[in-house]
Amino acid sequence: MATQIVMDHNGDSRHQFDLKDSSALLDAEKRFKQLTGVGYTAAVRDAAGTATVIRSFDPTAKETLFYPRLVGG
Q1: Sheet holding 41-45, edge to edge
Q2: For the whole model, what pTM was predicted?
Q3: Of the four, 14, 25, 69, 70, which is 20 to 30 A from 51 by CA?
């Protein structure tokens, strides 16, 4: 199972999907495009906990984090 974690002002929500389920995989890719399209930053966390920003959907990523756009003032 892979997980997409979406951080927002309420905390986080987790969306798990099975790589073998084509419908779930399509939904995960759609979620990725929707979130990055409205300004979220997507990052993949490796086993050491280091996050690397990604620009396209990676179905093999075990965990993808989505951070909202930060607005300074």
Answers
A1: 11-17, 2-8, 63-67, 41-45, 51-54
A2: 0.88
A3: 25
